[in-house]
Sequence to fold (1197 residues):
Amino acid sequence: MKVSMTINGRSVDADVEPRTLLVHFIRNDVGLTGTNVGCDTTNCGACTILMDGESVKSCTVLAVQADGASITTIEGLAEPDGPMHPMQEAFRENHALQCGYCTPGMVMAAVSLLQENPSPTEAEVREGLEGNLCRCTGYHNIVKAVLAAASAPGGPK
Amino acid sequence: MIPAAFEYARAGSVDEAISLLSEHGEDAKVLAGGHSLLPLMKLRLATPSALIDVGRLQELSYVRDAGDRIAIGALTRHRDLQVSDELARSAPIVSHVAGLVGDPQVRHRGTIGGSVAHGDPASDLPAVVLALDGELVIRGPAGERVVPASEFFHGFLETAIGPDELLVEIRLRKTQGGWSYQKFNRRAQDWATVGVAVARTDGTPAVALVNMGATPLRAAAVESALAAGASPAEAAESAAEGADPSSDIQASAEFRRHLARVLVRRGLEEAGV
Amino acid sequence: MSILGNRVLRKEDPKFLTVGGSYVDDLPLEGAVHVVYARSTMAHARIGGVDKSEAEAAPGVLAVYTAADIDLAPIPNGAPFGNPAMTRPWLADGVVRYVGEPVAAVVAQTRAQAVDAAEMVIVDYDPLPAVVDPEAALRDETLLFPEAGTNLVMTFPDALAGIMLPAEAADQDEGIFDDCEVVVARRIVNQRVAPCPLEVRAGAASWTEGRLTQWATTQAPHGVRDTLAQSLGVDPTAVRVVSPDVGGGFGAKIGAYPEELFLAWISRALGRPTRWVETRSESMTNLGHGRAQVQDVRIGGTRDGRILAYRLDVIQDSGAYPAIGAFLPMFTRTMLTGVYDVPKVYFKARSVATNTTPTVAYRGAGRPEATAAIERAIDLFAAEIGMDPADVRRRNLVGKDRFPFTTPTGTVYDVGDYERALDLVLEAADYKSLRKEQARRRQSGDASQLGIGLSVYVEITNGLPGSEFGSVQVRPDGKVTVRTGTSPHGQGHVTSWAMLVSEQLGVAVDDIEVVHGDTDVVPRGVGTYGSRSLQTGGVAVNQAAGQVVEKARQLAADLLEASPDDVVLDKAGGRFHVAGTPAVGRTWSELAQAAGEGGLSAETDFTAPGPTFPFGAHVVVAEVDTETGRVRISRVVAVDDAGRILNPLLAEGQIHGGIAQGVAQALMEEVVYDEDGNPVTSNLADYEFVSAAELPAFETIHMETPTPLNELGAKGIGESGTIGSTPAVQNAVVDALAHLGVRHVPMPATPERVWRAIAESRAGGNS
Fold:
C-alpha cells in the first residue's frame, strides 16, 4: 500500500505492507535509526516521536495510519548543523542520559509535555513521563532537565 | 512485535466503514486509534483478517451539548476529552478520567469509542459511561440503534456491537455537583487494579466499578443503600456485592473486593455524598 | 587547576541527543538475512519431534535449524565449579527446560517472514513435571538433568574450599548462638527480578575470507570473542567482536547468549551475514534474571544491642541452565556481615536448578542479597529488643580505626568510616524530626502512616581478580587517542578517561578520543562489570598517560638539548620546555611528529592489588496507606562513599540509577511463574518496571574516603545505590507498620502484601 508523509520536513513516499509499524517504517524504510524499540506492549516509550506535533508511540501506529502526517523524530528536532533544541541542551547540561537508548523517545515526550503544559511542577513532569521508561538514570536528572528546559530563557519551544 | 498480515481498508465515511465491515466478514476489526487493538496484534493475541480504518472520520470527533445530555463522537481522542471546555462545564469527570487513561502518548491516539467498544473491564472510561447512564449509538447496515450502557457490556471484551456495526456516538448525562474517580494502580501507566467512579446526574449518586468483574459494573447495592439513607461508610461496605473480580498478578479477588470497599467510601466522601 | 573532581559534561551526549546512538540493530549490514527463534511454550517437556516442513516452505525462508542440525559441543556449566553434567545445548535437544528456550532457528530474507515462519514450527511436546520452586527442586523428585543425578549445582563454601577459599572455610561451628540472650530468625525471599536494560539482546555476524566479525550488545567484547572462538573451534585472531553503543547491561550482558553465538554458525553455514534482535517478551524470558535467593536468616545478641552471632543459609535459584547466577552466593558470603563487627558467623548456600530462566549477575550480583539479609536482620533484632534501629547499628559498626579489617569470612575491607556515613545520613534526613512526625501520625490514627527505613552497607567492587588494558597515543596533529579494555554502556568512560588523560597531558578533553568496544582496535580487555572500570581501566589509562608524559619529556629533552630533569610540561599550553625558559619549547604535535610513525604512545595492563569496598548509609521515608497498602516513597537520602570522585556528575548519575533499581526491587518488581513454570511477567505491561511517577527526587550526600589501593583513590560506584536502597525501603515499609505489630513484609512490598501483613497482625498472628 502506498503511503506518503513528511518526516523531519522531507516528504517520503513508499509502498508498505499494511502491517508495517510506523517505527519500523522510520527505521528500516527511511533509515532514521535514532528512534528505538524497547518493548512490544506500548509501555516503554523508546519509540516516541511527534506526529502532527504530538507525542505518540510509533510502535503502536501503523505506517498506513500515518499516511499524510507530519512526523518529527529526534533527528529532526534541531537543524542538522544548528544549535541543539533547548530540551536536548537541558538533557546534556543535567546529565539526563546514560546509555542513551531511551533518550530520543524521552526527549520527544518531554517536548510534547511542555507544549501542553509549559510550566509544570515536578510532580506533573513525573506524571507526564509515565509512558517513558529509563533503566539508567533513576529519572532524577531527566525530571531536572525537563524542569530546567521549562524555565530556560525564552521558555519551552 | 510484528503483527500477522492483514488486509487494510480505509473508510472515507461511516457508511463506507459499515459496508467494508460487511464485505470483510467476522474476522475484520475496526481500527480507530489502535491503542487497544494494535498491542494485541503485535503479540499476535489478535490476528484479524482485515482492518477497517475509521481513524480519518473527522465527523465522529466532537463533544456537543445535546440538551439534557452531552454527545461525544466515538472518535474523540482522550486528549480532546481532557481539554474539552464543554466537558469541563457539563461532565468534568469525563475529562478527568480521560486524563488518567494510559499515558500522554496513548491519550494522543486512543479514542473513547475504541475504549468503550473494546469492552475491557479494566478500562477507565467504560465505567464512567456506565455511571453517567450512557447511551451508545450504534450504526449498522440496517440503520442506527441506541443501546443503554446497562445493556452494552456483555462480557470480557464483548459488547452489543455486531460484527458489521460501528459505534458512532456516546451520549452521557450531565453531572451535577461533586464527583470522584478513584483509580488504584501500581504504576501510573498501568490499568486500574480497581477503579471507582462516583457521579450525580439526577441528585442521587451513581457508583460504577472498574475491573471488578468481566464487565464494568454499577455498584447497585451501594446505590440502594445510599437511597435508603446509609452513610457513605456504611454503603461502601457493600461495594463488592454482586462483583466477581478475577485474581491476577496485580491483585487477588479478595484484595480487589477490599479495595472496592475502601475506594467506594473514599469516592463517596470526595464527591460529597 | 585540576580537571579531576569537576562536573564535566559528557562528550558522548551530542550524538545520543541529536541522531541517537548506534546500537546493534541500527547497523546497516548489506545482504544480511534475519534470524528468529521458535521457543518452548513448556517449562519442562520431552520433545517428541519437531516438524519444520511448513516453516521451511514459507515465503522467504532460507533455512530452519534444530538441535539435530548442529555440530557444536554443548555449552559448559556457566557456574565456575558447578556440576559439570549440567550443560546447555545450543538449541533444545530432546528436552526443553524453561519457557522461552530456543528450539529452532528460522532464517529468512526479512524479519517479518522469519517471524511468520517461526510460528509454523510445530513442536511435539511430551510434558514432564515442572520444578519451579528452588526449595522443591532441592528434594530432587524431578530432575532437570537426570545424568547429573541431582538438581544441586553447587554448595558453598564446600565447593570452593581449597580452591577459591581456604580449606578450613568448609569447617564451621553450628553452636554460634549459645551465648546470645536474644535470637531472631526469619525466612527472607530476595525475589527474582529482571535486569531490563532498555536495549534488548541483538546480534549480527558476518564472515569474510575465513574471518568472523560479530556485532554484540555486551559489557565484555573480548570475552565474547574468546567464547565465540572456542565455540566455533577457530583461533581468537579469526574473530573480531564489535560492541557499538550498548543500551544498558546491568550485569545481564556480561557473557554471550546461545542465540547470539549461533548467529555466527548460521552465517558460516549459509554464507550470508545474519542478524537478530529479540522482542521484549522474548527478552523477559531469556535475558538472565537476577537475585532469586531464599534466605534463612538468624541473628543473636544481647538485650542491650550487641550482635554476637549471625547465620545465613541460602538457596540460590540458578534457573534451568546454571550460569554465573549460580555462583553468586560466593559474593553473598564475601559480604556476609556487612558493616558490622560480628564475632561468630555461619554461612551455607546451595545453588539449585529449576525450570525457569537462568539467573545471572544483576546490579550488585550477590552483594545486595547479603546486605538485604543483614540489614533486615538488624531491624528484626532491634524490634525484638525494643531499641532504635539506628542505635543498634551504631553499636555494632566496625570502627574507623580498624582498617584494613578482616571479616569472619576472610574478606579484607580496605578502608571505611561507617559511623560517619550513618551520622551524615541521619543528620541530612533529620532523623529525630522524622521520628516525631511518625509518633504524631501514629497518635492521630491517620490512614497514612510514616515509615523510616535505614541501611548501612559496604560492598565489594572489582571483586574478581583481573587486569585491564589502557593505552594513550598522541597523534601527529597533537590530538590523543585512548584505547581502553573497559566497555562502557552508559557509564561515561569516554568523558572520564579523557579527563584523566587531559589532567596529565594538558590536552583539552575535546581533543582526546576514547576508543572501546572493538577487539581489533583494542588488543586486550576484560570489560565493564562489578563496578571495576575506574579502579582498573581508568588507572591503566592514567598510568599509560603518565608514561607518555615521561616519554615526551625525554624526547623534548633531546630536542631541546637539555636534561630530562629540567624539562617541564606546561599543561595550560600543552607544551614542554626547560624550566625557567618557557619561550623555547615543543608542543605535543611537534613531539608526536618527531617520535615518528604512530606518534608517542604507551600502554599498560593494570592489575589492582585487591578489591575495594565502597560503603554508605541510606534513609528512606515511606508513606504507607494502611487501608489500601499502597506505599509511596517520599524521600531517599543517600550517603555513598566510593572513594575519590573523578566526575561528580557521572557518579551521582550512577547513584540515582542504582537507587531507582533498588527501590524497584523493594516495592515493585518481581519475576513470577505459575506452578507449571509459565512466566506471568513476560512483558513490560505485566512486569512492574518502575517509572518516574513512582519515584521521588533523590537526596545524595557527598562523602569521600579514598582507597589506598590505587593512585586515584577510587572505588566502584555502579552498584552502591542499588545495594543501599533496597533494604532501606523494605525497612521503611515495615517501620510504618511496626506499631500495628508488623515485623516483616516480603519484597516486593505490593499493596496486597502490605494489606495482608496488617490484616494478619490484627488477627493476632505475627507477620
In short: Chain C has a mean pLDDT of 96.
